[in-house]
Amino acid sequence: MSKLVCVGQIINVHGIKGAVKIKPYLTNPMDISAFGDLTDKDGKKVFRIKAQSQKQGIVLATIHGITDRTSAESLKGLSLYVERTKLPKEEQGEFYCIDLVGLTVIKDGEEFGIVESVDNFGAGDIINVRLKNSKVFPFDFSEATFPVVDIEKGYMLIVLSEGIKEVLNEN
Fold first, then answer.
1. CA 74 to chain centre
2. Three-state SS for 121?
3. 100 in helix, strand or coil?
4. What are 16-63's pLDDT values in tens digits?
5. Interacting residues of 21 by C-beta distance below 8 A, sequence separation 6+
6. What whole-number distance in Å separates Cα of residue 12 and Cα of residue 81?
7. Order of strands, edge to edge, in the sheet holding 58-63?
8. What does each C-alpha distance from 42 to 37, 49, 81, 98 come to in angstroms?
């Protein structure tokens, strides 16, 4: 199985027939049902999603086999994943955040760390880098902080602000 990519999360239920509200992490929210079966984070439970409508970025959907509110409520908070290979091909210069995981982070021509994960809590992407001292440190994913990202060559350059330099020296 290829890497799994989180494409959305079930945030609530709707009505008594088992419909759910999904917060998709996609450019086009209705694409949540375009990839075929979705899974849980372990890839063990499979969900066939059918998007019904979309309002303000939230998709109202049904899930095959979920026919009542109680069953739907048991899925609240569930993140939905798709295999990386099912995602559309990126345009030149684009990439998926999952592709950053494992890249070497270079600072001033030397290895600074390895990208361990990418998070987004609503205010933008956070790159979690495992530093050479084994600590994991979060960095804002911006062009100012990471001016070069080269997926094919397996690295990204980092430029640290003075404030971040001070915090890192304290740790």
1. 22
2. coil
3. helix
4. 999 999 999 888 899 999 999 999 999 899 999 999 999 999 999 999
5. 10, 11, 12, 13, 14, 58, 59, 60, 61
6. 17
7. 46-47, 38-39, 79-83, 4-14, 19-24, 58-63, 49-55
8. 14, 18, 9, 16
* CA 110/CA 122 separation, integer angstroms: 32
Task: Quote helix, strand, coil % in the chain, to nearest 5.
Answer: 15, 40, 45
Q: State how far the Cα of 54 lies from the Cα of 144, in Å rounded to an integer.
A: 34
- With beta carbons less than 8 A apart as the criterion, state whether 7 and 38 touch: yes
Calpha distance 115→108 (Å, rounded): 17
Sorting pLDDT into bands at 50, 70 and 90, what band is 8? very high
Q: Is 105 exposed, middle or buried (0-12, 13-18, 19+ CB in 10 A)?
A: buried
CA nearest to 8, candidates 53, 41, 55: 41
Confidence check: pLDDT of 153 > 80: yes
pLDDT tens for residues 70-81?
A: 999 999 999 999
Asked whether residue 93 carries a pLDDT value surpassing 80, the answer given is: no
